[in-house]
Amino acid sequence: MRKLPGIAPPAAFHFGRTMQAKTIGIAGVTVPGAVDCLSKMHRLCAGRFPPLHHPRFVLDQPDFGAVHQAQDDDRWDRVADSIVGSLDRLAGAGAELAVIPANTVHLVVDDIRARSPIPLISMLDVVAEACAARGLKQVAILGTRWTMARRLYQTPLAERGITEIIPDEAQQALIQNAIFAELVPTGGASAVTVAALLEVVEAMKAQGCDGVALACTELPLVLNDANCGVPAIDTTLVLAEAALNAACV
């Protein structure tokens, strides 16, 4: 085994391991979501790979404004077309599997998956599995208005015996504004906005939720287990972990 001077690799790994890992493609939707996904994949490599090593990552990041306009126009066919275009480019760059670090576009994941040239890991399955693994029974879904109103997670959660709780229309509008007025443009939110989001979480807890799915990839940038007071499922993190697991088989 070749060793780096002064650095002992973990006993369970060898330096050829990274060459065996599949190339992971990231079909970015929002920049903060894509960057956070890549960052979390990188951090999760610790203990899986020798120091300084990781799988090859390929990122395709189209202009989000066009995708957001298609969502506003209820043109989900255009949303799917944009993501499939990213997947085609990722495959051309050598990606062997892909993730889409954005919850809302999973409203058309079946269409996207059917047209994808490479295997696609769905957020819906891995997030629902993460909720089940933490023993949750009633999960509040916080995300864009499309994710919440269209009950994106209802079926995958129900298949695992979990009930979803959805914020009311006023709360949905508050979350939508926080996402698109602050979190997506800046990657953060003001203390006032974070406090308002936590008030929604408290309202969901009063309705009986025992966990919260942060079902927008920007929400984990400001919400977590500690400030929510209940398990807060970081959908970006569980997707990143699933991608690494799939890449290392």
UniProtKB/TrEMBL annotation:
Cleavable signal peptide: none
Keyword tags: Isomerase
Keyword check for Protein transport: no
Highest classification ranks of the organism: Bacteria, Pseudomonadati, Pseudomonadota, Betaproteobacteria, Neisseriales
Domain of life where this protein originates: Bacteria
Gene3D superfamilies from the UniProt entry: 3.40.50.1860
Protein name as catalogued: Aspartate/glutamate racemase family protein
Any one Pfam family match given in the protein's UniProt record, by short name: Asp_Glu_race
InterPro entries tied to this protein: Asp/Glu/hydantoin_racemase (IPR015942), Asp/Glu_race (IPR001920), Asp_race (IPR004380)
RNA-binding listed as a keyword: no
Similarity field: Belongs to the aspartate/glutamate racemases family.
UniProt GO molecular function: amino-acid racemase activity
The species this protein was found in: Chromobacterium paludis
